[in-house]
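The material for today's practical consists of a large collection of protein records. Read left to right, the backbone structure tokens trace the chain's path through space. An example says more than a description, so a record of this kind follows:
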Amino acid sequence: MRGAGCTLPFDKHTLVIPEGTRFEEHTIVAPGDVIVADQCRLGFGVLTPARVFVGEKVEVVGNLVAHGDIRVDHFSTVKGDVRSECAAYLGERVRVEGKLHSRDLDVGDSVTITGGWEAKGWVSIRNPVPMVVYLFIYLLQLVGQGRSEEVERILTQMEQEQDAPIVVGTGYLYIPSGSSLGLQEGEVKGNLQVGAKCRVLGNFDAEGWARLEAGATLIGALRAGSDVYIGEGCRVEGDLETRNILHLGPGASVAGSIEAKRVRMHQTARIEGTVQAKEGIDFVTDFSETLARKVEDFHAGHVEMSRLLP
């Protein structure tokens, strides 16, 4: 079944930055599909070997460059070039303040391309242009629930209506509705998930929790409304603030100050600034972490008491 490869858990309220993503000064270099939901502001351009999907009333400050399709929904603005080696789809009243290059081109009413355009294949003008952001969300949720029959029914119906089915693969970058990303200020309407070995620029203010996987680097400050997890070998070059618990994994380092309700840090973690923790600081070791997991397994009935201690 198409779409069976979508194995990552999906939450439309979590900003997902997949493993290996690099933020450069003006461009996000992503390994897979990039999805920007409605009413977002993206203060970077995008470069990807996959596809780019942009929702309604979005502002992109930079170029959109993709090997696959680029789709931009109604009333959105791209303050740069749009370059696709496949097809470009621009919805009603989309504005591109640069040049457009694509193989095929599909545009809605009142589209503006100030720098001119070049399409090597077919050109179609119709209204409305099919858009896919919420289709992604719906299909991924169905896949996560194991409702493969429902997904297959939707895809069959789309084929009958001559609309190509679009399915998000693993390794996608997703920006939730109403969020903004930029070098100076970034606002996340939900949670923040940064994959392993990412290099991320900017200051982030997340309404929910935030998590950096092993080896990730954040050059900027991070504020979160819930728990913050900084994984093994991560580096944060800025301040960290959370209303709840801050977890620092082995070898993690913070080149800034910390403010949290409680700090739980591995003995090999490093903090180069001041620490404010109303409920104190807990230092953990590999042994204590392993023991804590065994205790959790014991309470869950997964391990016998005799195996709790080495």
